[in-house]
């Protein structure tokens, strides 16, 4: 028999779980109304639900999608371990499976990237090189590719291309299920992260429940990585694995190999290489008299191993480094969440300025800003706080680049699950997560130049309201590190 208090707590958890499930369900309905669908799906869908893809139906689906994003964010904040209790891994895994389930068979959420993935895999399976052949050539998937990428070649490294080709082959080039099959990539990523999240949290002196809450239950992770079927998810998972391997026996070499694999999935993983190598090497050299020499040699060796694996995979595949071809897509071709792209698109589309010089200037400015940010992060966190440095480096690259999509902050944001963050910064990160989650769907209504400021204001309002109440009162302590540990949201 449950006590009344236990029944109340169980009922509240069921309500929270149901609201989160409803949220992801509403978001998963959105691409059926507004996204591209092949005729094999769209025709019977239109016959069964004739109003779903009508103008009014699309507006209703968009509104429900926004409501779903808000519901999922609310449910996520409601199951923070400080609110539902710690030491409940089964609850967290159950919520992850429940909330993620509605996305699994739906079209890609808020992105057309998986159609491009499938087209690239199809091209590879035809015995052609995706670095030479534009992804818009006639195929079962070309109609779903975003217009700006039709004439471009792929920018992804070989591991991504071969995974895409395998998934297309398994699903026999089906115009719908081959695209949905791309979700096998984030599912694999989630499994990798789930296996190491708690052990890594214990290594770092982090509450394992909070680490899982940040890294996997996160609404941005569920909606963008899983719902959007982005290959960035596997890159992130391999970086997390590399950080965990770094402190195991032979960790310098194993972590370097993991970074090489991650870079073979998507190139930004290269930026994690320095931080992961330092994470492996610093404990072994910090007490040596010539520790900086030892550190430099170890980091250089790790870079050679990881870089060597990346190059070996590239050339053994016979694809080479074609992802760097100038035929690949440029971030200036599309508008995104960064003000740099807003200005670029205004100049290109509004004033007729050629895209090439606009892109060049934008790239120079964002590169300078990103390098300056990474240097600042390094001065602040190195040499001891190597995971914080790795997270900060990837965040700087994701947030300050020439393009900013809603899932880019997850490159470094996931790693914050294993970083001690002060309470006030943690609350800002939670608010930003909610803002990005909603802004991603509001793009179905308006340009990011409108949605980003609106959602930033909403996130700021939530932050203001939640100050001093979200985590409860901090425990008395006299040591800053203890304050950070007690107040951590990552």
What is the secondary structure topology, with strand pairs?
Layout (H helix, E strand, L loop, with lengths): L3 H31 L4 H10 L6 H24 L2 H4 L4 H12 L12 H13 L32 H13 L6 H4 L3 H21 L3 H8 L3 H8 L5 H15 L4 H15 L7 H13 L5 H26 L22 H12 L4 H27 L4 H15 L9 H4 L9 H20 L5 H19 L13 H8 L3
Briefly characterize the structure.
Helices cover 66% and strands 0% of the residues. With 490 residues, the chain is mostly helical. It has a domain at 113-175.
Write a structural description:
The protein has a domain at 113-175. Residues 1-5 and 473-490 have low confidence and may be disordered. It contains 22 helices and no strands. By secondary structure, the chain is an all-alpha fold.
Give unreliable regions as ranges: 1-5, 473-490
Content of β-strand: under 5%
Order of helices and strands: HHHHHHHHHHHHHHHHHHHHHH
- Major sheet size, sense and barrel closure: none
Distance between the termini: 36 Å
Radius of gyration: 23 Å
Outline type: globular
Percent of residues in helices: 55-70%
E-strand count: 0
In terms of structural class, how would the helical and strand content be classed?
mainly alpha
Mean pLDDT: 90
Note the total helix count.
Answer: 22
Family: Belongs to the MptA/B family.
Transmembrane segments: 12-40, 60-79, 176-198, 252-280, 292-316, 358-377, 389-408, 445-464
Keywords: Glycosyltransferase, Membrane, Transferase, Transmembrane, Transmembrane helix
Membrane topology: Multi-pass membrane protein
Can you tag this structure with a few keywords?
490 residues; mainly alpha; 22 helices; globular; disordered N terminus; MptA/B-like
